[in-house]
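Researcher: I'd like a candidate sequence for this fold, 142 residues long. If you have to choose between options at a position, lean toward the conservative one.
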């Protein structure tokens, strides 16, 4: 039984690559974009990512090792992919994503989360919050 399918497409403006129909039996699909992930190439990448998420049984691995540059619109496409994966109950794993893209994706995800759910703050029980702020530590006998 096949558990992973690799889909390598050059991400360039004239890319018309489609996912291979044999990926329907795969638990995981691996996308390996190459070059600059920006401009028209982002539309191709987003289409491939959405198609892979719908096709894969468990999720998608996006291997960014051969990507030279990531445009802001590609970060937004990755964020939309994360949202779709959550809706479908599947996972996305990002490999070899550079630090700037990771920070951009985290910021994009925060913005998306605030749009959907309003301002977001992690709040724990009062005692734990006091512990984190140091109030609880000052009241403990030494």
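Model: Candidate sequence:
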């Amino acid at each position: 039984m096949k558990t992973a399918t690799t889909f390598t497409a050059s991400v360039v403006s004239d890319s018309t690559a489609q996912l291979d129909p044999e990926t329907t039996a795969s638990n995981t699909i691996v996308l390996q974009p190459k070059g600059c992930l920006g401009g028209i190439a982002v539309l191709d990448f987003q289409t491939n990512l959405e198609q892979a998420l719908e096709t894969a049984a468990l999720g998608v691995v996006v291997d960014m090792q051969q990507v030279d540059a990531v445009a802001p619109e590609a970060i937004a496409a990755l964020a939309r992919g994360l949202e779709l994966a959550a809706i479908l109950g599947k996972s996305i794993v990002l490999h070899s994503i550079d630090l700037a893209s990771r920070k951009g994706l985290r910021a994009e995800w925060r913005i998306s989360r605030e749009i959907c759910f309003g301002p977001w703050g992690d709040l724990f029980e009062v005692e734990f919050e006091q512990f984190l702020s140091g109030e609880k530590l000052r009241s403990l006998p030494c």
